[in-house]
Amino acid sequence: MKNLTRKHKMYLGVVGVGLLLVIIDQVFVLGGSGPDTTEAVAPPAQTQPTPRNRDRRGSKADTARPAATEGPDLSQVSQRLTYVSATHAINPDDALDAFSVSQAWAPRDRPKHIGPGQADAEAARLAAEQFARTRRLQAIVTQDGQPVAIVDNQLLRVGDLLGKARLHSIAARSVVFELSGQKVQIDLNKD
User: Fold this and answer.
1) How many domains, the chain?
2) In which band, very low, low, confident or very high, does the pLDDT at 111 lie, cut at 50, 70 and 90?
3) What's the CA gap between 26 and 84, in Å, rounded?
């Protein structure tokens, strides 16, 4: 213990106190029962006094032992939930969905019934517009008799990729890219 720092000693003390509390909880508070017991949900069992082994003085000690009950089997969580909902008049249909989006967070201008195909087409159109706004066609030249476009300081031939867009065609003063099935034309800048 001499080589341990003060921080290590504090850590060991906290761990020791935690272990002591767990032992006390298991032995005295819960009476040795684990978390899988159903006493909190199950109806109280009827007890009958039964004679037990004789104690040290020779007299019989009466102890209470749970009587056999004909109650429901509550060994599974689903059975416990069913029992609680039946005994406490809980309607599962009244429960709120924890994962649904609140109406306050839902966008107001979006149509309610938009299909997956429509959403994909709209997303592709927006991506194509964004691509056209952010790209700059700087020049169109010929190299080895083939037209070459310079877009964002990159030399591109027909069929080359710029990000996710493929160069579809090169004209005298513009180029056409294809992005997610959308054709995007970018004109030569005048500056």
Assistant:
1) 1
2) low
3) 26
